[in-house]
Amino acid sequence: xxxxxxxxxxxxxxxxxxxxxxxxxxxxxxxxxxLAKIILENNSVLPGVKKSEIQTVGxxxxxxxxxxxxxxxNMQKVLDNANKDDYSLLTENILDIPKAIQEVNADIIIExxxxxxxxxxxxxSHIETALNSDKHVVTTNKGPFAVAYQQIFSLAKLKGKTLxxxxxxxxxxxxxxxxxxxxxxxxITALGGxxxxxSNYILTKMESGISYNDALSQAQKLGYAEADPTSDVEGLDTxxxxxxxxxxxxxxxxxxxxxxxxxxxDITLADVNxxxxxxxxWKLIGSVWKDDRGIVHGSVCPKLIxxxxxLYGVLDATNALKITSNILGDxxxxxxxxxxxxxxxxxxxxxxxxxxx
Length: 357
Known about the structure:
Elements: E1 12-14, E2 17-26, H1 30-41, E3 45-46, E4 52-60, E5 67-68, H2 75-82, H3 97-103, E6 108-111, H4 123-132, E7 136-139, H5 143-147, H6 149-159, E8 163-164, H7 167-170, H8 175-182, E9 188-194, H9 197-206, H10 212-221, H11 230-233, H12 236-250, E10 260-261, H13 269-277, E11 280-290, E12 296-306, E13 318-325, E14 329-336, H14 340-356
Parallel strand pairs: 2-4, 2-6, 6-7, 7-8, 10-12
Antiparallel strand pairs: 1-2, 3-4, 4-5, 9-11, 9-13, 11-12, 13-14
Helix pairs in contact: 1-2, 1-14, 3-4, 4-6, 9-10
């Protein structure tokens, strides 16, 4: 079963455009900054029939600082300062983020706070507060939808608001929309692939003779990996995506404790070289499938991928998901799996969909 989020819009006219949309960021890290850059490069005007203009009226970040301005925030100045690690323009110290979400005069909330795949908090609270206060939500935050997918989407449906999560699984590569609309009429039985750009980048670099630690260091410098890379390299990020896909495709909430999870930190250069000598490559593979009894399973673990597999040639921070269905057999979607602009684009695309619905 494929679940479609409800769609609705809320707008007011503006002299500058047919539709004027106000947005507020919850969390202003790399992903939010990527979205802000994309919007500025497009002069804050979204493509589409309605010529929609985006105005940022709020930035809410406990660590970096916050700012609310109903007249609009100068995002060019904020981004210029952020490039220097200077957040002095975010002068307000707002600790009660849910209350600020409720009160800010925004149509769309961009939820990009810290991801916690065990509890989904504080993002669940942020998202539910936004929906309850008549705001649409776009997010790349995996935690809430790994543990409370049905709960949150039920609320969105009840409130008649759009909840868009395209960026939660494959960054800027549109896999959720493909599953929701591109494979109608075909019964999906399994999905599996490379869903973490950081781990794939590390394994690719190890093939050139670089040690695991050096490859990880490179990934961190490029912004693919966090200072604490545990979620990426130990498979927890991929686990969250497997749980989301189980909900999207099979309408099943998997339990984390029932899913086998192993990361890539134990893979050595010798392992990588041996695989290459046998025309194979190590990849961290997340899988979710339905067995003959209709029971849905999930797993995350390194696998040897043979040279004739569609996932074999997927290198660096690229992601790929192989979708198995009764009519088409295997269909593989390949695209960017990490990066500031790539993930920001997923949010941008979701915003456009909301405004033009």
